[in-house]
Specification:
The structure holds two protein chains of two kinds. By secondary structure, chain A is of the alpha/beta class. Chain A is built from 16 helices and 13 strands. Helix content of chain A is about 40%, strand content about 15%. The termini of chain A are far apart. Chain B has helices at about 1-5, 10-35, 55-60, 95, 125-160, 165-175, 180-190, 195-205, 220-250, 250-260, 265-275, 275-290, 295-300, 315-325, 325-350, and strands at about 65-70, 110-115, 120-125. The chains are: A alpha/beta, B mainly alpha. Chain B: Its main location: membrane. Chain B: It comes from Mesorhizobium onobrychidis. Chain B: InterPro entries: ABC_transporter_permease, MetI-like, MetI-like_sf.
């Protein structure tokens, strides 16, 4: 409703700016964003922003098609790890905003490529192990903390205990059916916690050693054991389980994002959000969610920048967080939210994101690397040979980097 | 004939023009683009200039080789065996990554067989493409005859003037009307390995003896599951084509057959089937082409997995072109697919020609 009213009556003197957004179909998100837009349009007389929403699944394709046709909007919504790809391809221009304006933003919410700030996120996302306090008590498990997370042995002991109790269909739900960005976002931190990575971050020119070294092989064997051992459902899992499986009690533990936190808290009284286990090289989680940037073709980058600065006010950051449970990017906004203020049920995520969150490889090649990583993990889960699969993934990533002239890394 | 068609039929051509124009703009032209792009290294998005690479993309997709692996031997020259008594072979990667064999660089194992003490390994530059090729052929080989004959049987069943026959026609045709994406989503629930409808029914019918199968999660059942669902979904469409063919056969032929005292089978064999000749060709060609275009079911239900057991050519073309931003690779697959379908359709046409 708000959207349609503000689309219809732009003030005459205002210059029109267009914006594309990935969240079509998400009501809470759209309502908050539309509120920001109408507030912005009413707050000054120079600019009038209009939003066009796309379904998330086809958003990136729409942008690629529009870019080829020369039809990009002024303000683009971009997924953090994809940003270097778009910046490198010339879809985005560096933000005409001083980086110091975002000094207290969480590192994962700032999109920096080639030394320049290209995009800023209004939230960060985090992943946690969802569990019930009653389950932990029943199985006699220590509650892990940020300072003292579960070790690999403790995690496996917990899964064994849950499996032995016979009360669950599976001990752990990983959301394996979602073979889009979820795999590299949610599972590459496991690999990093083992000491490997998707690509060698010192040069970004090869995956050799990072994705198939000793640490990665150990990770692969552990990963396969989760499915061989019957701890977690495999790639053919029911898609609905990631939404309701944990709430319905099918799983003792669930590895899920904090965008599901609010809904889960409403349904499960004693839900606790546990930090990622430490597999040897520290406990890691992913970082970097959707962000706003200015398209390279925009004739009014200063207007687009005005809007992004306006949207990055604490009250809006807090509104997004309260609406969908995402992490507010600044400490001051965090204090304004229900869940992330000191002592709030999700407060642990703010510190985790600040201290341990690791953005996915910052390289234009990430888009391809994520696909290769996803397929390798799905294949290993389905029983493929670990060493061969990881080696093949390395070959494919290296060949892609080479055929793209190193993706602009010097 | 030609002059009458081109000159005296202006109105007809005018009516056809919009359709032809759309076909040229959206099918013929893009196809020529695809041929052109398949000879370059065009990316979906990249600041690098596009280069002409000749047949490199085809070599990347179709490259094959055979490697012989000799057993590992210890210092005494004895064959090394593991605890289970199996002969140990060196890892293939030691050959494909070795500087001594630059021609095998980046290739991977497709399949292997034992030959005496040695192992022969067929390696391919693009194993996934090869698997997609095999799966697509398998799909067409199974779906075309099964779907075609099922559709004919349904058409024969509903080609009667009985009260309420329209209800059956509607029921059989219904799956065609529903979007394939929706159908695929629904069948995911049916095939669910934990508490899917299919497993529940089979367990009920066998009084619990049947062990639940993870239909889409098992490499040996995933492709057959997709085939079964695809056959069910489109069988109604071909049923209608058969039905149209059946109703074109002149009733006088059936009357004559009845007077001659032909049995049901003889009527079908000597009246119905010859009368359906052109329909049969059409149905066969259409099912074959649709089978080669298998995509939506894979995209929604399996993503090509598990272990590439449901990879198909079109899914690979899309995955490569958009997913991996390699437009030239995707175009190359499309061109290969076009050549395949054209060759097969021409063969079918030749085999079913008027003799």
């Amino acid at each position: 409703m708000i959207a349609s009213t503000c689309l219809c009556v732009p003030a005459l003197a205002q210059t029109k700016l267009t914006m594309w957004y990935h969240g079509a179909g998400n009501e809470v998100e759209s309502r908050t964003l539309n509120q920001i837009v109408s507030d912005f349009n009413a707050s000054q007389s120079d600019w009038a922003v209009t939003i066009e929403s796309f379904p998330e699944k086809s958003y990136n394709d729409s942008v690629a098609a529009a870019a080829l046709a020369g039809n990009l909007p002024d303000i683009l919504d971009v997924d953090g790890p994809v940003m270097p790809n778009w910046a490198w391809a010339g879809y985005l221009q560096p933000l005409p905003i001083d980086e110091s304006d975002f000094a207290d933003f969480l590192p994962g919410t700032k999109g920096v490529w080639d030394g320049k700030l290209y995009s800023v996120g209004l939230w960060d996302a985090a992943v946690a192990l969802f569990a019930r306090q009653s389950t932990l008590d029943e199985l006699g498990l220590r509650t892990p903390s940020l300072d003292k997370p579960w070790s690999r042995e403790e995690l496996m002991a917990a899964l064994d205990a849950a499996k032995a109790s016979g009360k669950y269909e599976f001990a752990l739900d990983l959301g394996m059916n979602d073979q889009a960005e979820w795999y590299s976002y949610a599972f590459s931190p496991f690999l990093q916690s083992f000491g490997g990575d998707i690509v060698d971050r010192s040069t970004y020119k090869t995956a050799e050693g990072a994705l198939n070294g000793e640490a990665a092989q150990a990770f692969g064997k552990w990963w396969q054991s989760l499915f061989n051992g019957g701890y977690a459902p495999g790639t053919s899992e029911d898609p609905a389980d990631q939404q309701t499986g944990f709430i319905d009690g099918k799983f003792a533990f669930q590895w899920n994002g904090n965008w599901r936190a609010v809904a889960t808290m409403e349904a499960v009284d004693d839900v606790v959000f546990l930090p990622a286990p430490d597999f040897g090289a520290g406990n890691k989680i992913g970082a970097g969610s959707w962000q706003f940037g200015v398209s390279a073709k925009s004739k009014h980058p200063e207007g687009a920048a005005e809007f992004i600065k306006f949207a990055a006010q604490d009250k809006y950051l807090a509104a997004f967080s309260d609406g969908i449970g995402l992490i507010p990017p600044t400490p001051s906004a965090a204090q304004m939210t229900k869940n992330y203020k000191d002592g709030g049920p999700l407060a642990v995520f703010f510190d985790l994101s600040k201290a341990q969150a690791l953005v996915r490889p910052v390289t234009p090649g990430y888009v391809v690397q994520a696909k290769v990583f996803t397929k390798a993990l799905a294949d290993i889960a389905n029983g493929a040979d670990v060493a061969d699969t990881l080696d093949a993934a390395v070959d494919e990533i290296d060949a892609d980097i080479e055929s793209n002239g190193g993706y602009g890394h010097r | 004939m030609a002059s009458k068609l081109t000159l005296s039929n202006r109105t007809g051509w005018t009516f056809a023009l919009p359709g032809f124009a759309l076909i040229v703009i959206f099918i013929v032209l893009p196809f020529f683009f695809a041929i052109g792009l398949s000879l370059t290294n065009q990316r979906l998005l990249s600041p690098n200039a596009t280069q002409f690479v000749g047949l490199e993309n085809y070599r990347q997709l179709l490259g094959l080789g055979v490697v012989t692996l000799e057993p590992e031997r210890d210092d005494a020259g004895e064959v090394v065996r593991n605890e289970a008594g199996e002969i140990q072979y060196p890892r293939l990667r030691e050959i494909t990554r070795s500087e001594a064999y630059p021609q095998y660089r980046g290739m991977r194992e497709w399949f292997r067989w034992q030959s005496g003490e040695n192992v022969m390994v067929v390696i391919a530059s693009d194993v996934v493409f090869m698997k997609a090729l095999v799966n697509t052929f398998l799909f067409v080989l199974v779906v075309a005859p099964v779907q075609g004959s099922l559709a004919l049987m349904l058409a024969l069943l509903i080609n009667h003037k009985v009260t309420g026959i329209n209800l059956f026609r509607t029921i059989y045709f219904m799956p065609v009307v529903v979007s394939i994406v929706v159908v695929s989503l629904l069948w995911r629930f049916i095939y669910d390995g934990q508490n899917g409808l299919l497993n529940s029914i089979l367990q009920g019918l066998t009084f619990g003896l049947f062990q639940p199968v993870d239909w889409l999660g098992n490499p040996s059942t995933a492709l057959p599951a997709v085939m079964a669902m695809s056959i069910w979904q489109a069988v109604g469409f071909h049923m209608v084509i058969w039905l149209a063919g059946l109703q074109m056969i002149s009733p006088t032929l059936y009357e004559a057959a009845a007077i001659e005292g032909a049995s049901k089978w003889q009527t079908f064999r000597y009246v119905t089937w010859p009368g359906l000749r052109n329909t049969a060709v059409l149905v066969l060609v259409v099912i074959t082409m649709q089978g080669f275009a298998l995509f939506a079911q894979i995209d929604v239900m399996t993503n090509g997995g598990p272990l590439d057991s449901t990879q198909t050519l079109v899914f690979q073309a899309v995955e490569r072109g958009y997913g991996k931003q390699d437009i030239s690779g995707g175009s190359t697959i499309s061109v290969i697919l076009f050549a395949l379908v054209l060759a097969i359709s021409l063969t079918q046409r030749w085999l079913t020609r008027e003799r």
